């Protein structure tokens, strides 16, 4: 190819080619029943893990190295020893035990049926364990009232990154490579609102993709950040910690826009709003939670919808940013840790009085 002689013309041509709009054919459907049968796969890449049902330490099973890669991807194993083998070794057993703990399963260390059922579920591509530290099952105690106690499991990225106080009015934009319909943009706008309702943060759409705080795009396979997508189901999306602001979704999924799974819920249908609300949690600084009802729980079955922030999510995000002044706290069960300690002290105080009164009464009986 003959190159243009003028460097200015060359730069202009290069700029045009880099910015050329390459549409990504993400699949959006108004509801689950509108997915054509041809778009519904028979199986996904993780389904073959079901062949390992019943495997435990000491056995060798063909293909087990792929499951080790899965555990490495989500932070449960490290690959400092080179290639993974097909041996069920001690480090895989440890990884399975931590996974079971994070997902509230019996910690058998074996690939029993309930564990594999979780492993093959579609999920967020962000790791559960970052830098070798699992915070998913951190088990902070908080008091719902003076008698009932629940456990909070929200987590943060290492060093708790958050958007700085002076950047509470955040902007977002969609990749110019993915022209999106109003209906799809509406899903993201509703998802942002769920987080702004409970925090002082605001989110507004901007047309300037390069200057937006949060940049949203649909990608297929390897898209340049070392976290390739894997086709239908498997990993659905991933998002980066503050203040990177990148939210990537798998363009190969069958995304459902209106959350309607009433008449049909084919195996591959994924609710876009459920995934968007979860990924925005990451953009704000939240990690994964082991509370199954929480938005920040890592897996979501296809054909299901989970869009309401749970107490666990609200407590987590408010620990980073505080509450929205207009938030009426429709979840009165949220009690900061300091207050919990006071409640516990109060309960202990009451018991001490009872012990004292019973003691004095016993002494009186003894003497008289
Ligand atoms: Zn996630
Ligand atoms: Zn990505």
TrEMBL record:
The record's comment on cofactor binding reads: Can bind about 5 Ca(2+) ions per subunit.
InterPro entries cross-referenced by the UniProt entry: M10A_MMP, MetalloPept_cat_dom_sf, Pept_M10_metallopeptidase, Pept_M10A, Peptidase_Metallo, Peptidoglycan-bd-like, PGBD-like_sf
TM spans (from-to) = 344-367
- Active site per the UniProt annotation: 279
Q: Does Mitochondrion count among this protein's keywords?
A: no
Query: What are the recorded GO MF terms, alphabetically?
Result: metal ion binding; metalloendopeptidase activity
Positions annotated to bind Ca(2+) 2 = 213
Residues that hold Zn(2+) 1 according to the record? 223, 225, 238, 248
Required cofactors, per record?
Ca(2+); Zn(2+)
Check the record and name the Pfam families matching this protein.
Peptidase_M10, PG_binding_1
Protein keywords? Calcium, Glycoprotein, Hydrolase, Membrane, Metal-binding, Metalloprotease, Protease, Signal, Transmembrane, Transmembrane helix, Zinc, Zymogen
> Signal peptide location in the record?
1-20
Where along the chain is Ca(2+) 3 bound? 230-231, 250, 253
Name the GO terms of the biological process aspect: proteolysis
Does the record carry Transport as a key word? Answer: no
List positions binding Zn(2+) 2: 124, 278, 282, 288, 296
Q: Which family does it belong to?
A: Belongs to the peptidase M10A family. Matrix metalloproteinases (MMPs) subfamily.
Protein's name in the database? Peptidase metallopeptidase domain-containing protein
């Amino acid at each position: 190819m003959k190159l243009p002689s003028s460097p200015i013309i060359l730069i202009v041509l290069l700029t045009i080619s880099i910015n050329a709009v390459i549409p990504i054919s993400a699949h959006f459907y108004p509801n689950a029943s509108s997915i054509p049968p041809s778009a519904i796969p028979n199986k996904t890449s993780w389904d073959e893990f079901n062949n390992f049902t019943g495997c435990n330490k000491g056995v060798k099973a063909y293909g087990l190295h792929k499951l080790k890669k899965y555990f490495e991807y989500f932070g449960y194993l490290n690959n400092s020893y080179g290639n993974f083998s097909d041996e069920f070794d001690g480090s895989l057993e440890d990884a399975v035990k931590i996974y079971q703990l994070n997902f509230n399963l019996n910690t058998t260390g074996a690939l029993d049926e309930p564990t594999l059922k979780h492993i093959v579920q579609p999920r967020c591509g962000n790791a559960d364990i970052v830098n070798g530290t699992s915070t998913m099952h951190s088990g902070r105690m908080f008091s719902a009232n003076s008698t009932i106690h629940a456990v909070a499991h929200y987590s943060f990225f290492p060093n708790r990154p958050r958007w700085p106080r002076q950047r509470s009015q955040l902007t977002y934009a969609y990749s110019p490579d993915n022209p999106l319909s109003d209906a799809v943009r509406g899903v993201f706008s509703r998802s942002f609102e769920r987080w702004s309702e409970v925090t002082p943060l605001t989110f507004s759409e901007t047309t300037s993709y390069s200057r937006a705080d949060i940049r949203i795009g649909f990608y297929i396979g390897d898209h340049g950040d070392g976290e390739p997508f894997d086709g239908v189901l498997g990993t659905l999306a991933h998002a980066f910690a503050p203040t990177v602001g990148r939210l990537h979704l798998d363009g190969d999924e069958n995304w459902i826009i209106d959350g309607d799974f009433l008449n049909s819920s084919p195996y591959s249908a994924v609710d876009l709003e459920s995934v968007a609300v979860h990924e925005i949690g990451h953009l704000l600084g939240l990690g994964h939670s082991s509370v199954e009802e929480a938005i920040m729980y890592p897996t979501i079955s296809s054909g299901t919808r989970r869009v309401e922030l749970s107490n666990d999510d609200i407590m987590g995000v408010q620990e980073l940013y505080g509450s929205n002044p207009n938030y009426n706290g429709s979840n009165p069960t949220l009690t900061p840790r300091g207050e919990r300690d006071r409640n516990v002290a109060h309960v202990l105080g009451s018991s001490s009085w009872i012990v004292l009164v019973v003691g004095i009464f016993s002494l009186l009986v003894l003497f008289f």
